[in-house]
Amino acid sequence: MKCSGILVFPILLYHVQSFYLPGLAPVNYCRSGEDTNTCKSQVDLYVNRLNTEESVIPYEYNHFDFCLPSEELKSPVENLGQVVFGERIRPSPYKIRFMENQTCTLLCKKTYSSNDPQDNLKLSILRKGIGLNYQHHWIVDNMPVTTCYDTEENEQFCTTGFPMGCYSKNGRQTCAKPVSKMDASYIHNHVDLTITYHSGAKEEWGSQFQQNGGRIISVKVIPRSIDYKGQPCMQTGDYLSLPTKNLEKGQTFEIIYTYSVTFIENNKVKWSSRWDYILESMQHTNIQWFSILNSAVIVLFLSGMVAMILLRTLHKDIARYNQIDNGEDAQEEFGWKLVHGDVFRPPRKGMLLSVLLGSGVQVFCMTLVTLAFACLGFLSPANRGALMTCAMVLYVLLGSPAGYVSARIYKSFGGEKWKSNVLLTSMLATG
Ligand SMILES: *[C@@H]1O[C@H](CO)[C@@H](O)[C@H](O)[C@H]1NC(C)=O
């Protein structure tokens, strides 16, 4: 037995070495025409729901009148956590081929006329979305597409998501360059995509490509609003403003959507550390550690003080009790002895207390186990929705500790209605 164990272990180790969680394995891309079954040339761009900080309601991509793919493409399968978080990942009409620069490609034209009442509605939905600062969230190669800008301290700040337009309203404006109109919404109808890739030179996995393939490191986008004045890809320098009111009779309005793609080789960043630039640009993480530490120290200090005060009073009381014991007459009770009847008295709302305690234990255990898993690295951000899925599955599984704690405490109060206790524990505070 021992012998076989010793033999099996190294074999296991050997297999464990190269192990990626499903869906997280690197994807190799190569120039079109060089497709093999280890690499593909088409870079898929997926769009997610749009959201904003100014409203709680997220909208699906096709809620707005953007360009849609011409053929029926399948949406990727989503897991439970993603669905609950409201992620709706859909295919997009952007056609990107690996290592093929595109200077300006027409995506689609949308024409609105006053004859169709639906058109005014579509335009007003776009206006409203821009006014509320709704943000696109795109995904390429399982990475979020980011927008980066330089901060005042000359550092790069990257966010996942970019606004669907910009506006000037009531003296406030969100556009990159100052606009003259006082009250207008400008739609971002052009995107500059910059895709950085690692060519695989001097890497084991890259030996099969020789300059014709690689892995995607980052995808950055610069959204722009360009008034093409009817001619796609003509550089005018003007922003495209949406009509502020409903279209009048005989009036038409056209939005031309375009995009450009630039591929840049960068062999300094390894594929395995490609998420770092997103995490680095979130500078708040250090501050949060500081404030967590800060509050922990304050809590410790305060509880220490309270404990000291209690100890001193108790000592005094005990000294007085000892003195009285020496004397003969049994006096009235005073000091800490006054509470002796109250400590084991069941509370009036024992049911509620036990039920809430049970649910609390459930949430607490869930948080603890999820945190442990996350710290061990099972729930990486590349694995979308895993955190939420994990938390929800754990919450369901941890129903038994909740029931145990709740029943145990209820019984210690001498409760009789165990059936309602069971029902309430499972129903009252459902996460
Ligand atoms: C694409 O454009 C970038 C920047 O202009 C250039 O460095 C790169 O070599 C171009 N790539 C191809 C495949 O033409």
Q: Whole-number average pLDDT?
A: 84
Form type: elongated
Q: Major β-sheet, in short? A: 5 strands, mixed
Low-confidence stretches: 1-20
- Overall helicity: 25-40%
The number of distinct β-strands equals 18
Tally of separate helices: 10
Global structural class: alpha+beta
Bound ligands: 2-acetamido-2-deoxy-beta-D-glucopyranose
Please state roughly what percent of the residues sit in beta strands, choosing from under 5%, 5-15%, 15-25%, 25-35%, 35-45% or over 45%: 15-25%
Strand order of the largest sheet: 1-17-16-18-6
The first-to-last residue Cα distance is: 47 Å
- Rg (C-alpha, Å): 31 Å
Order of helices and strands: HEEEHEEEHEEEEEEEEEEEEHHHHHHH
InterPro entries: EMP70 (IPR004240)
GO biological process, one term: protein localization to membrane
Pfam family, one: EMP70
Main location: membrane
